[in-house]
Amino acid sequence: MRLAQENDRVLLISGKGKRYFVTLRAGDRFHTNVGSISHNDLIGKPYGRVVRSHIGHPFVLLRPSLYDELMGLKRVSQIIYPKELGLILFHLDVRCGSRVIEAGTGSGALTMALANAVMPYGRVYSYESREEMLRVARRNLEEVGLEEYVEFHERDIAEGFDETDVDAVFLDVREPWDYLPQVCQALMDGGFFGTLVPTTNQVSALLYELERYPFYDTRVMEVLLREYKPVPGRLRPQDVMVGHTGYLIFSRKVASDAELPAPEEGSED
């Protein structure tokens, strides 16, 4: 049985499904429009139990998942959604001990997912040219205790990356094709490259440029996710769906002098 402890970050969900993140501090109180709860009443309480405000409104006490944290983090820019994050982690083969570069940082959603995957022995190198974005991302990573696995750089990536022979590079920038030389310089042979762009003409521009550099096994995909109302008697899709967020492109860097095999006869054009 796991108990909530002082300094833990906990999730409280109300009867109407509203979600609240609270960092427990002895002597503090959590306030809502349906009453308040003393932190002392939560410290030492088992997760998965119902707690009540001082006027009797129920909340479920839970340990927040990474998904909860990602969807609840403070945003100053559009984030990469969890439906893409899972594919990014698998296609970039991010695991414990990996060294990964990302640019730009934005609000830090991808940074958070990468840091959680590479810990405790890996490292994320996050590049962002906007100071205000880095400030928000740092705070978001600190709140979930993952900042020690990330090195932030305030820099235009046109100037290049400090790191070499990294396992993977992911670009979340408007014109990723402009930075393929910098990616090639930082990425080990056989390493993984990925990016996300919102329009098909950006995908085409990147595909043309990838042909000029030592990349192979390129893939383009889009992820659509539709949630359902979890009511057994009237199960149906949610009224609102995020129809489109972006296109994912993945490729592998090969040796610059590699003689790549030509497409086999009968393969798709």
> Count of helices?
6
Radius of gyration: 22 Å
What's the level 1 CATH class of the largest domain?
A: Alpha Beta
As laid out across the biggest beta sheet, the strand order is 9-8-7-10-11-15-12
Reported by name, the CATH topology of the largest domain is Rossmann fold
Proportion of residues in helical segments: 10-25%
Q: Outline the low-pLDDT stretches.
A: none
The CATH superfamily name of the largest domain is: Vaccinia Virus protein VP39
**Overall mean pLDDT score?**
93
The biggest sheet, with number of strands, parallel, antiparallel or mixed sense and barrel status, is: 7 strands, mixed
How many β-strand stretches? 15
Key phrases:
alpha/beta, 2 domains, Rossmann fold, Vcp-like ATPase, Chain A, domain 2, 15 strands, 269 residues
Describe this protein's structure.
This protein is an alpha/beta fold and 269 residues long. Helices cover 22% and strands 29% of the residues. It has helices at 66-72, 82-91, 109-118, 131-143, 180-186, 200-210; strands at 9-14, 19-23, 29-32, 35-38, 50-52, 58-62, 99-103, 123-128, 150-154, 166-171, 187-197, 215-222, 228-229, 236-237, 247-253. The protein has a seven-stranded mixed beta sheet, sandwiched between helices. The protein is elongated and about 70 Å long. The N and C termini lie far apart (57 Å).
Describe the secondary structure blueprint for this structure:
Layout: E1 9-14, E2 19-23, E3 29-32, E4 35-38, E5 50-52, E6 58-62, H1 66-72, H2 82-91, E7 99-103, H3 109-118, E8 123-128, H4 131-143, E9 150-154, E10 166-171, H5 180-186, E11 187-197, H6 200-210, E12 215-222, E13 228-229, E14 236-237, E15 247-253
Parallel strand pairs: 7-8, 7-10, 8-9, 10-11
Antiparallel strand pairs: 1-2, 1-6, 3-4, 5-6, 11-15, 12-15, 13-14
